[in-house]
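Notebook entry, structure prediction.
Reason for the run: the old model in the group folder had no record of what sequence produced it. Starting over properly, with the input documented here first.
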Amino acid sequence: MTLLSRGASGGPTRAASVASALKLCLLGGLPLLLAAPASAHHLMDLTGLTPGPLTGVLSGLAHPVLGPDHLLFLLAIGLVGIVHPFRWVLALLGCGLVGNAFGLALPGLSFIEPLVALSVALTGLVLARRLPAAVLMPAFLLHGYALSGAVLGWEPTSIGFYLVGLLISQSLLLAVALTAVRRWRERASSGALSVTAGLLMGIGLAFTWSAVIP
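New structure, fully documented this time:
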């Protein structure tokens, strides 16, 4: 089934489509409100805890949720017409781990955060069928690189526990994206999907702007 294959006859009613689009607008605006405190993307920034095995796991679990660009990107993956979800999850998580490794070995690349923010707009372009879904794989690598920056200077054991928590958190979010979010996409009208694609592109560009010009 193609991404925008549901026509007017097979899709929901006009009223349902409008209501769905309004809900998406509200959900799409929430990450913009959360984006203001950019320094609060990491659990340690919020709690002041010191690195250790337990705090490492907790930080890894929380980090993708506290970063609105990471969270929205992960959830939006459920919208882009992935054909083989299990293979995609493994491939994306593998790209994320490679990105983590690069981030720990070669930290400090200043252009990563704007590219991570731009990846949200990329999901909108994929949803609109302007780009292939394969672009999500290098985008996921960029997210992995960015997420590794929070643990630079930690002891290796704490970093290992952080990566375990990060892997669990991203796996759970991808599972939600490829179940609940994907089910919505399959029921949505082509108009609702177009609105969603536009929202993702707009939010992604706003994230990018805020990353380039704090």
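Summary: The two ends are 41 Å apart (CA to CA).
The old model has been moved to the deprecated folder.
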